[in-house]
Write a structure and sequence with these properties.
- By secondary structure, this protein is mainly alpha-helical.
- It has five helices and no strands.
- It is globular and about 40 Å long.
Length: 87
């Protein structure tokens, strides 16, 4: 069982998700856990899941770093390379 969220290896996505899912099940009001899981989802290119977790973190804590992550992820999703679209 995880004692501290800083113990998570964010480069081991699969194991980190297992740990965070277990942690969140026991601590559903920990905004930082949702933020961290959102970061892992973002790194896995699961942007919808990432946004869901960021919004959950923000709902739990209006001062969460998730607010910045949402802004950045929305900019990434809105990016269009017009050179690829226009002939």
């Amino acid at each position: 069982m995880i004692q501290n969220l800083t113990d998570i290896d964010i480069h081991d996505y699969e194991n980190s998700l297992i740990i965070l899912n277990e942690y969140i099940a026991l601590n559903p009001n920990d905004d930082n856990a949702y933020y961290l899981r959102g970061n892992i989802y973002r790194k896995m290119n699961l942007f919808g899941d990432a946004l869901n977790d960021y919004y959950k973190a923000l709902k739990l804590n209006s001062q969460s770093e998730a607010a910045i992550a949402i802004e950045i992820l929305n900019e990434i999703l809105a990016y269009r390379n017009t050179d690829l679209i226009n002939p």
